[in-house]
Amino acid sequence: MADTAATRPNADSPPTSDVAQKPRPNGPLYGGFSRFELELEFVQCLANPYYLNHLASQKVMQDPSFIEYIRYLQYFTQPTYTRYLSYPGPSLKALQLLQQEKFRQDILSPDIVSRLAADLLLASIKSQ
């Protein structure tokens, strides 16, 4: 059956599907988003080598609290949470690499960033 606004229970809600829905805990919201949604967005941003370079250039990666936060975000490696990632491969690889001090220093190099970006582009072409 076709999905039209008339067939949905609430015309303002998106169509339902088998895609995993993000949990919306009853806890506090931050700018209208749950903590999980913000953490999910951040982990997905880590798939972008240029963003990693930006964080490194701003010396965010030198902050011990950032390193602890990356350690905390390892829960995304569990299948229960991995299913919410749009790009699980690059996002989880970045989480893994960010635990290494050498990587946090190396990502400042434009050559490393370019190579990572090229690898991501090549992987996306091969997956199509």
The mean pLDDT is 84
Radius of gyration: 18 Å
Distance between the termini: 29 Å
Structural class, by secondary structure, is mainly alpha
Low-pLDDT stretches are 1-19
Shape: globular
Number of strands: 0
Number of helices: 7
Helicity range: 40-55%
Please give the oligomerization state of what you see: single chain
Main sheet summary: none
Question: Can you give a write-up of this model?
Answer:
The protein has helices spanning 35-45, 49-57, 64-72, 79-82, 88-97, 101-106, 110-126. α2 (49-57) runs antiparallel to α7 (110-126). It has seven helices and no strands. The protein is mostly helical.
What are its keywords?
single chain; 128 residues; mainly alpha; 7 helices; disordered N terminus
Q: Care to give the gist of this entry?
A:
This protein is mainly α and 128 residues long. The protein contains 7 helices and no strands. The protein is globular, with a radius of gyration of 18 Å.
Explain the layout of strands and helices.
Blueprint: H1 35-45, H2 49-57, H3 64-72, H4 79-82, H5 88-97, H6 101-106, H7 110-126
Helix pairs in contact: 2-7
